[in-house]
Amino acid sequence: MSKSRDTSGTPGAARVPKRTLAAVVTSQIRERILAGGFPPGTPMNEVELATRFQTSRGPVREALHRLVQEGLLVGTPHKGISVRVLTPDDLDDLYFARAAIERAALVRLIRRGASAALIANLEQAVKQLALAVEHQDWLQVSAADLRFHVHIVEAAGSERLTLMYRSLAAQSRLGLNLLVGTYKGRQDLVDEHEQLLSLLASGDRSGLLRTLDKHFGDALDTLRHHREPAADVAEPAADADPTDPQEGA
């Protein structure tokens, strides 16, 4: 009768479960996409990714399929999987969906009253946004911008809306990251978020929803304007600094 070996003290014996490893790889790839390390249109090669993340192809394959489901990657027959390139129709649909969810969240928050914790979180996001604008760091601008909006949806208390919105926010980063290199000063972006915060704190429903619509409309116009010259696939940034994969309007 064979005895099972106790490998608890053996170096390297503790292995990360396959499903957990796939989740880790998913997070790492997502972070690089959202930080601009894998620009839109970048092919996602299983072998290269497995080497990069020091794992087998199985977890990488599962990670890629998860990110396709999240909308960050797209699979094309005979071409494989690549980072999604947002079309004008994609941008229209993305901001239409975001506006619908955020309007619903704001209506609930106005009815209930915004908590002190939410106001504090939004104030912090605006400060981070202002600092990023001051330093002309567009990746951090987009992260702080979207963080502001994610806080609003989370505070509404709907788990399903939050899950949907986080996916939409991540996809928005694909578009916002295209603005890197086109920065010309965006104090207006800070002002718009300060106005949204003020209207929410005061409970001005009509003013808040009207300002939100204008805010999203302006963002969509900016993305449309810059999309053509900025949409060329760039080389991945070797030293891209990952940010929260689910953050960033």
Describe this structure in words.
The chain is mainly alpha-helical and 249 residues long. The protein folds into two domains: 18-83, Winged helix-like DNA-binding domain superfamily/Winged helix DNA-binding domain (Arc Repressor Mutant, subunit A), CATH 1.10.10; 88-230, Four Helix Bundle (Hemerythrin (Met), subunit A) (Up-down Bundle). The protein is built from nine helices and two strands. It has helices at 18-34, 46-52, 57-70, 88-112, 116-134, 138-155, 159-176, 187-202, 205-230; strands spanning 73-76, 80-83. Strands 1-2 form a two-stranded antiparallel sheet.
Number of strands: 2
| Molecular shape | elongated
Radius of gyration: 20 Å
The fraction of residues assigned to DSSP E strands is under 5%
The CATH topology of the largest domain comes to Four Helix Bundle (Hemerythrin (Met), subunit A)
Largest sheet: 2 strands, antiparallel
CATH architectural group of the largest domain: Up-down Bundle
Distance between the termini: 63 Å
Q: What number of structural domains do the residues give? A: 2
The percentage helix is 55-70%
CATH superfamily of the largest domain: GntR ligand-binding domain-like
